[in-house]
């Protein structure tokens, strides 16, 4: 018998073998494995917990240097104080001019003109300071957003904490208004949303948002972050997932020695955890040895050599 004949015969046999039979509900064929074989194979079972908030996709965060903001805040306080002093000066000079004007002919004309000129010059200075103050607010808003700019007059305590280094400014990509956390030194630091930032992130060319954290984190760092929360889902260990026919499956334990393959339909993978939006809470799932069960399932469908 030639080698080519044997090879053709093997191909024909393999093609004639029936494919895996799947029940109508889409689950795999049950696999029976005794407790002794489970122990030898290292099969490990875990009860899936109740659904919990599913974190969004990982994001990138950048800790920002607050020096330009603090310098602008100092300039803002100086201009505001100067404007307050100028407004008081205008009131005094205006009252003096009005009083001289009421005296009429009893006051020399030159004295009235000098009083009026001093009043007008003080008013012009007040208007100039007002324009400069408004322009500074506009520049700050264009760079940092309206929420952070309002700290100048609403939350000076946070500016002091920012200067002391106990508050950190964070630019987060993408722009999400929901809850967010900064990952720094294996800790999840809560981030507080301020506003969307004008323009796109200069590094990733994507919309960005401004957050602040009550933590001392060096500026100039690029750090991982989590942004927002979505609907609740059941966390499934990634080690429990096996792939077959282009889709993910897990093995659920039906009784002490029987397992059934179950397809995952609505899921999202994040690192070592898959978040599954299905009614799997409380189910017993194989978290170690699922690949072995998959092999065992299909091994049982391949006929033995002596089978007719």
Fold and architecture overview:
The chain has 308 residues and is α+β, with helices and mostly antiparallel strands. The protein folds into three domains: 19-54 and 231-299, conserved putative lor/sdh protein from methanococcus maripaludis s2 fold (Beta Barrel); 58-65 and 165-230, Thrombin, subunit H; 68-154. The protein contains eight helices and 16 strands. The chain has helices spanning 3-16, 35-41, 67-103, 109-144, 146-149, 151-154, 156-164, 290-299; strands spanning 31-32, 44-47, 52-55, 58-63, 168-173, 180-184, 187-200, 207-213, 222-227, 229-237, 242-244, 247-255, 258-263, 267-270, 273-276, 284-288. The strands form four sheets. It has a six-stranded antiparallel β-barrel. A four-stranded antiparallel sheet has the order 1-13-12-11, with helices on one face. Strand 14 and strand 15 (273-276) form a beta hairpin. 21% of the residues are buried.
């Amino acid at each position: 018998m030639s080698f080519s004949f044997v090879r053709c015969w093997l191909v024909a046999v393999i093609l004639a073998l029936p494919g895996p039979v799947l029940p109508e509900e889409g689950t795999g064929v049950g696999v029976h494995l005794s407790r002794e074989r489970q122990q030898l194979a290292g099969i490990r079972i875990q009860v899936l917990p109740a659904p919990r908030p599913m974190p969004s996709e990982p994001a990138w965060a950048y800790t920002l240097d607050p020096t330009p903001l603090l310098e602008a805040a100092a300039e803002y306080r100086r201009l505001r104080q100067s404007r307050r002093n100028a407004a008081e000066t205008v009131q005094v000079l205006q009252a003096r001019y009005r009083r001289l004007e009421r005296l009429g002919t009893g006051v020399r004309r030159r004295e009235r003109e000098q009083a009026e000129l001093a009043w007008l010059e003080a008013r012009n200075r007040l208007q100039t300071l007002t324009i400069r103050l408004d322009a500074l607010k506009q520049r700050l808003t264009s760079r940092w957003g309206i929420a952070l700019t309002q700290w100048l007059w609403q939350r000076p305590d946070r500016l002091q904490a920012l200067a002391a280094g106990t508050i950190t400014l964070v630019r987060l990509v993408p722009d999400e208004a929901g809850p967010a956390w900064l990952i720094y030194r294996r800790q999840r630091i809560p981030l507080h949303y301020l506003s969307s930032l004008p323009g796109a992130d200069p590094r990733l060319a994507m919309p960005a948002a401004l957050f602040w954290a009550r933590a001392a984190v060096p500026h100039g760092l690029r750090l991982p972050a989590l942004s927002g929360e979505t609907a609740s889902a059941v966390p499934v260990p990634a080690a429990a997932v096996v792939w077959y026919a282009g889709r993910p499956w897990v093995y659920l334990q039906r009784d002490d020695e029987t397992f059934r393959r179950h397809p995952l339909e609505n899921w999202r993978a994040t690192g070592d955890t898959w978040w599954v939006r299905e009614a799997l809470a409380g189910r017993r799932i194989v978290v170690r040895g699922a690949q072995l069960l998959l092999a065992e399932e299909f091994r049982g469908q391949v006929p033995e050599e002596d089978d007719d």
